[in-house]
Each structure stands twice: as C-alpha cells, then as structure tokens.
Amino acid sequence: xxxxxxxxxxxxxxxxxxxxxxxxxxxxxxxxxxxxxxxxxxxxxxxxxxxxxxxxxxxxxxxxxxxxxxxxxxxxxxxxxxxxxxxxxxxxxxxxxxxxxxxxxxxxxxxxxxxxxxxxxxxxxxxxxxxxxxxxxxxxxxxxxxxxxxxxxxxxxxxxxxxxxxxxxxxxxxxxxxxxxxxxxxxxxxxxxxxxxxxxxxxxxxxxxxxxxxxxxxxxxxxxxxxxxxxxxxxxxxxx
Length: 240
Prior knowledge:
The protein is an alpha/beta fold. The protein is built from 7 helices and 7 strands, in the order E-H-H-E-H-E-H-E-H-E-E-H-H-E. The N and C termini lie close together (about 10 Å). The protein has a single domain (about 5-240), classed as LmbE-like (Rossmann fold), CATH 3.40.50.10320. The protein has a 7-stranded mixed sheet, with helices on both faces. About 35% of the residues lie in helices and about 15% in strands. It comes from Allomeiothermus silvanus (strain ATCC 700542 / DSM 9946 / NBRC 106475 / NCIMB 13440 / VI-R2).
C-alpha cells in the first residue's frame, strides 16, 4: 500500500488529507484508512438518536471514503472520548484513557502492528504528538501509531498533520510543516463534497473553515525525522 491514514474518528480523514488521498488515487496509487472509533461521543445535531450515532457516523464515513476514492477502509469500535462539556443533542462515550500512554490500551498498538504487517504501507499520515487540537483521542492515536511503526521495524515514512501555524492554546508540541501541498481546484471541489458527507459534524466543519480556511487548499505535514528544506510534494515518499 502506498499511503495509509490512521485516525481515531470519522471525519479526521478529510480535513487535513482529503485532497492528498484523492490525488494519490487519481495517480494510480493505493490508499487506505484505519479509523479506530465510530465517533459515538459527538453531536447528533438532531439527525439521529444519541444511541444511533455510532452507526450514523459510520455511514457518513463510508460515503466520505467513496468520494475520497480510498481503496481500503477499516473501521473499529474502540470507545470515543466524551466531550469536555456535554451539550444537548450529544452522546456520551467512554473514551480513551491516555494518562499512561500506549500502555493503557496495548491491544490497539498490537492491532496496528498487525495491520502494518499485513498492509505494508510505504507512508502513514496520523496526528502529531499534541493531537493538533489536544483531543485525547488524537494524542493517544499518535502514540499508538508511533509505537506500532517502531515495533514493525519497517522503513515507513511517518507524516503528522501539521497546521501552518499552531493555535495559541495548542502551541506546545506543535511541529512545523516539512511538506506543503497545494490542492488543485478540481480536487478541492471533491474534498469539500467529502467533508459534506459528515453531516453530524457540520459545526466542526464550519469551525475548521473559520480557523483553518487555508488548509482547505493547502495540506501540510511534518515528516518525522526530516530536517531538510520544506518540500511541496508528498507523493514522492510513497513510491518504490
């Protein structure tokens, strides 16, 4: 597999890497997505009953995956962290426990190691150490992916989502981009369509547009261990 995205929630696949995934597929490269939870702790926006949210979001993810032309999808049902403030119309999830890092859920790191051995990705995209926005599921997923890659012993290009500028409240742990990709207009149109499939996440989509509008057409990443000049092409790293 050329590129594998590993994230905790439905919708995490599209905001920072949707255009890249589309372009990979259109260039004949093999793409895959592993989503660890069904996002049952998010908002329902009145679109379904809270107890039905997991399956509702799973279907939203499948529609997004189709638009993004992702060739391989694995969706798991690990618990999704509850919001810090539970509002009307939101479900409640048990959530990841991250105080001890990957040791809290060794079965997840073991699962990811097994999937890396089977799928053999050349490149992986996941969250940075600070989770980009501090979300505990994002932070935990970073730790599990990094642990699995290290244990695999394989040469894998590991990319982290890297906003061009950190939010002030999450500046600690921010990693500057090493790779910035400008998304063509025709690809941006498809990316926006994929974002629109996550209807329960409409408020998150609007917040993303408000705070990170440039990331709609500029997808930026930090390549672990890379200290060279900023590159504008990610695809090279996934080729043989």
